């Protein structure tokens, strides 16, 4: 057995936390030879529920689970953490946009960014899931003095996986045959699901679907999938969010397959005309534990206009939380 990986999960007694904790404890992130210690953070009123989660985790007798911490103290939860999943935040209800959560949730992420900088490993990787994820990641990164902003990502992998699934269904193919789907921009209804480079079984996706389906059905379906799940379930996505969070972290650590990329919301670096100051979802490849934005893909006028709209929304979100940015 290798040295245990310390994984912090915030909001661990919530819906996503409940799905994520068991998969991590079962060794589904890095495999059966990499034990984990779960360091779970909750607000004080939820510590009773979190104790119940710990009881169930112990009852599973997972061979890969080397320890559990359940706490309301961020310093304890992030202590020596290798990986942090920042999930703890309010979810939206029907009729809300994710950015409506900014005033309630934004203030969570500054103190957590500070605690991560103070207590986690210096090479910690942080994935923000709590909404609005891109701007919460910006807040956390700006508070984490001494760490590189590139260590703070937000999750658009669920949107990426949704796009693959929609394309597979439309083309009668399997998700494993699909490559090079991209989600650009914000994890919000302005996100830009892009099939212009995608392939299905090696064939260009756009040669297999018509433009009307792409623009009129595919894009809005992916953009609105979160709201559709809330309508159907009465609660926001949980198991699919946990699964996608693990996909994001696994690729970041272990790399992306040759000939493919994944969508990751990372600090904008000027690529595709998006200047610094927002966390923007790009096509990314990962190698040696680091990520790179895929550069110089051609964008037609339709995509350029959509990218500008999602960037504008992110700049507006940023302006609304300027006082929280260190
Ligand atoms: P939930 O309400 O079931 O659970 C959230 C948990 O966070 C609760 O147990 C709550 O006590 C805890 N919490 C609140 N404030 C906290 C704090 N300061 N520190 C630690 N814990 C805290 O919600 P959920 O369904 O698990 O969703 C969590 C968040 O993830 C929501 O904001 C939701 O919108 C978001 N989400 C994002 C994606 C994505 O793709 N990026 C997907 C699904 C959900
Ligand atoms: C999702 O995409 O499922 C999450 O962001 C939850 C939501 O509010 O839609």
Report on this structure.
With 326 residues, the chain is an alpha/beta fold. The protein folds into two domains: 5-154, Rossmann fold (3-Layer(aba) Sandwich); 157-318, Lactate dehydrogenase/glycoside hydrolase, family 4, C-terminal (L-2-Hydroxyisocaproate Dehydrogenase, Chain A, domain 2, Alpha-Beta Complex). Helices cover 40% and strands 19% of the residues. The protein contains ten helices and 14 strands. A six-stranded parallel beta sheet has the order 3-2-1-4-5-6, sandwiched between helices. Strand 13 (279-287) and strand 14 form a beta hairpin. Helix 1 crosses helix 9, helix 4 runs parallel beside helix 5 and helix 6 (157-171) packs antiparallel against helix 7. The mean pLDDT is 97. Residues 91-92, 98, 131, 158, 226-227, 229-230, 236-237 line the site of (2S)-2-hydroxybutanedioic acid. The site of (2S)-2-hydroxybutanedioic acid (LMR) has 11 residues, from helix 8.
Question: How are the SSEs placed, and which strands pair?
Answer:
Layout: E1 5-10, H1 15-25, E2 36-41, H2 47-59, E3 65-71, H3 74-77, E4 83-86, H4 102-119, E5 125-128, H5 133-143, E6 152-154, H6 157-171, E7 178-179, E8 182-184, E9 192-194, E10 199-200, E11 203-204, H7 211-223, H8 225-233, H9 239-254, E12 262-267, E13 279-287, E14 290-293, H10 301-320
Parallel strand pairs: 1-2, 1-4, 2-3, 4-5, 5-6
Antiparallel strand pairs: 7-10, 8-9, 10-11, 12-13, 13-14
The chain binds nicotinamide-adenine-dinucleotide and (2S)-2-hydroxybutanedioic acid.
């Amino acid at each position: 057995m290798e040295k245990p990986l310390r994984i912090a999960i915030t909001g661990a007694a919530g819906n996503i936390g409940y799905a994520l904790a068991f998969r991590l404890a079962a060794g589904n992130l890095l495999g059966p030879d990499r034990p984990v210690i779960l360091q779970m953070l909750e607000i004080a009123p939820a510590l009773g529920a979190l104790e119940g989660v710990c009881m169930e985790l112990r009852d599973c007798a997972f061979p890969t689970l080397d320890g559990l911490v359940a706490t309301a103290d961020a310093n304890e939860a992030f202590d020596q953490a290798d990986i942090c999943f920042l999930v703890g935040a309010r979810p939206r209800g029907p009729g809300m946009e994710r950015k409506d959560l900014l005033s309630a949730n934004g203030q969570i992420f500054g103190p957590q960014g500070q605690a991560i900088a103070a207590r986690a490993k210096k090479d910690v990787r942080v994935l923000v899931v709590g909404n609005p994820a891109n701007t919460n990641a910006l807040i956390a990164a700006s508070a984490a003095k001494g760490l590189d902003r590139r260590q703070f990502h937000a999750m658009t992998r669920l949107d990426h996986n949704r796009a693959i699934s929609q394309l597979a269904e439309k083309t009668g193919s399997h998700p494993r045959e699909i490559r090079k789907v991209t989600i650009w921009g914000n994890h919000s209804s302005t996100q830009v699901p892009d099939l212009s480079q995608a392939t299905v079984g090696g064939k260009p996706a756009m040669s297999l679907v018509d433009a009307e389906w792409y623009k009129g059905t595919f894009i809005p379906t992916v953009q609105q999938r979160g709201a559709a799940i809330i309508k159907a379930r009465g609660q926001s996505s949980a198991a699919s969010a946990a699964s996608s969070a693990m996909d994001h972290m696994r690729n970041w650590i272990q790399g992306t397959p040759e000939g493919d990329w994944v969508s990751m919301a990372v600090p904008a670096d000027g690529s595709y005309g998006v200047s610094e100051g927002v966390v923007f979802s790009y096509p990314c490849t990962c190698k040696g534990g680091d990520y790179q934005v895929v550069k110089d893909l051609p964008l037609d006028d339709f995509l350029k206009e959509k990218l500008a709209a999602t960037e504008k929304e992110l700049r507006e979100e940023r302006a609304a939380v300027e006082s929280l940015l260190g």
